[in-house]
Amino acid sequence: MSETNPAAAGASVDTAPHRYTAAVAAEIEARWQDFWDAEGTYAAPNPKGDLAGDPELAARPKKFIMDMFPYPSGAGLHVGHPLGYIATDVFARYQRMTGHNVLHTLGFDAFGLPAEQHAVATGEHPRVTTEAAITNMKSQLRRLGLGHDKRRSFATIDPDYYKWTQWIFLQIFNSWYDDEARKARPIAELVAQFESGERAVPGGRSWNALSAVERADVLGEYRLAYASDAPVNWCPGLGTVLANEEVTADGRSERGNFPVFKAKLRQWNMRITAYADRLLEDLEELDWPEAIKLQQRNWIGRSEGARVDFPIDGEHITVFTTRPDTLFGASYMVLAPEHPLVDKFTPAAWPEGTHDVWTGGHATPTEAVSAYRAQAASKSDVERQAEAKDKTGVFTGSYATNPVNGEKIPVFIADYVLMGYGTGAIMAVPAHDARDFAFARAFELPIICVVEPTDDRGTDTSTWDDAFVSYDATIVNSTGAGVSLDGLGVVEAKARVTEWLERSGIGEGTVNFRLRDWLFSRQRYWGEPFPIVYDEDGVAHSLPESMLPLELPEVEDYSPRTFDPDDADTQPETPLSRNEEWVDVTLDLGDGPKKYRRETNTMPNWAGSCWYELRYLDPHNGERLVDPEIEQYWMGPREGLPHGGVDLYVGGAEHAVLHLLYARFWSKVLYDLGYVSSAEPFHKLFNQGMIQAFVYRDSRGFAVPAAEVEERDGAFYYEGEQVSRLLGKMGKSLKNAVTPESICEEYGADTLRLYEMAMGPLDVSRPWDTRAVVGQFRLLQRLWRNIVDEATGEVTVVDAEPGEDTLRALHKAIDGVRQDLEGLRFNTAIAKVTELNNHLTKAAGPVSRSVAEALVLLVAPLAPHIAEELWRKLGHSDTVVHQDFPVADQAYVVDEAVTCVVQIKGKVKARLEVPPAISEEELEKVALADEKVVAALAGAPIRKVIVRAPKLVNIVV
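User: That's the sequence. What structure does it adopt?
Assistant: Structure tokens below.
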């Protein structure tokens, strides 16, 4: 440690042996952390047991405060990671001190790819490295003095935990969504409807006439968790399927940067689309940042329009359009390359008159379609929909019929149409859609104006440079045999054509969503096994609860089989599939012993974080997911929280869609099935900002160790070479990470806590500056000095009453800190504590005991270790954690007098000291009677007096 470090040096040992130093802070912090653990200080009592025997405690309002699940990285924490954890800890401590029963704990989201990658490289079981990382992270977090109820902590890799993850999966698998009731119901109720004839079996046969395989196929169309052959993102270089969100904009894997292809594989899915409307509706009642709500709305993507059937060769192609009013302008159709009807409508030869530009240079439609499909499979969905790129496609060789006018229109395939949105087919109206316009120009297709332009371009589309898009214009050129839209506005035209489509039996008004079902399979080892087995006919069966948890078996090789990264024509081979003793089993599922084969995919790492808030409530319950009374107490609906949920959930904005949407979906299914009383998992969401750090790079662009960079004359040098500096993320790979341990060793955990909270508003990103940490350390030193004699170690406070100025400073601080802590404005709360502490430092004589105790209580949520120590030194034997937070006397908060400025002709002529509650009429009288004002007026007639009580009087003469 540096000799000049103020945390270590300062006054000499001889003159200040009891000064607050880093060594003193370390001793105090370790001792109080041991005390809190031994006493169970942060144990949150549940309604059963603890609360039942303590009426006073039972009467307290509750507060459930949560952080987003941390992943236990082997690299450990840097100082950017604990920002949110410290913030929730401060808030939780404040809530305890204001009379709440607070539940605040932390678990670990421990199934993850980094541990599996390490296992692939070294052969070491991922559980070994993960548990070591958890142990390290627990140690780092403990040193920060976080007030977690450690009895409730767990990791998602604990079999006792993922037993219930598997159980929830089975509830979803054994459920269907009843559109009429708008809720999930047990699949057994659907079977009963089929058996009784109350609900018709698809295809018209009786339920009893169906084979087991046929019944399974029917139910698979209803189940909320189902397996299907669907287009997926297949990454041969990783040997696994990826979710859309794990694929970069240029069509490569986010991890490893391997090519990603579209392929059809049998995968598990969650039917989250069934809940699209409810996920949208219930957002309105949540106390979330509007930006996060908007992202969820956009991701769900609800749009109203019409389904329209375009006849083709005795069948039809169905499209969804939000603009059925433009049907007369549809001059061609486009199918997604993966559309199942493409092969059916691709003839062996080009029809007569086919334009050369439509063929892509291929001799037959089959060749053209095959080549284009291969090309499209190598692109991501983001790439395919990029507005700026050149439009590509090929003619299928078939024509469909526009139902409103009978015109034959060519059918293309093009990569800008996705199978995952709508029906995977569009009617193209190039005059009024920018993408369709660009495609039509490239392929020399007709462009028909059906929405009259409101600019001066006219209706001759041959002169247009782009499409005309408007929702507030008049429909033209839109009259056919059955319907006329000419002269109508867009809204009226939509209604008329939709009614005609429904009456004609070729379409209907409908709602569409951008949201797709959730791909729920991974070709990995390190994840929750599916509690599913398949019989000899391939029918999926759920394991009974008595067989849960289904634990991961040992395997010799943790690697999924990888392939040539550029070879799209491959199939996954999972690590679990190689353990044949585990895969092939004989089980009695209630109808005698039979042979089954286990599912060899594992669940995605999102699964465990979809419900962890519930496990915090009742973490040791081996008999049920959560006790209903306990869940109702902590998360049930109540005034202000119509859907229930966690009172405060803090985490990064990067989880705006996936984690939050998935957790909301699982919560709603559990709510529908009666397992929980809360339809939403998280009522209030707060997104903390990011702690950033400077990244230094050499001439090659490689990051160099930030701690070894020197600054000279405004430039930066590493080992004599000038380097660049840019503010960015903090991390081990960027060589700019600062560990919490290093700051704790140099200044103490309380200083680190204060600095992170004082850096700026919690929801704003801010740069880390180690040199600035000392400012908060000095605050704690002054606080210590105001109560403890540095030479003797004795408490210096006196029992005398404080003076008027000190009382005003104290109660203003109490009032301000209360408001700031309640509003998560920790930086301004610290500023007010600092102001009060400085007032006491400058005041003559020792500090009054009443003021010192109030100051310690104000500091307690922010810097709990020093607060505990000073509280004990002030003569108290009980912990500061559960003391009442000070309450301000409003008589001292309101100023006795405020300064009122009196202006004449815009110039200040007098300053008056007036009561803050003075009325405008009284203030006007006082101002006009003031000697300086009378002299300045010099008898001039007053035209107008503008009064803004209590601070301004403006006299117009």
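The chain is about 30% helix and 15% strand.
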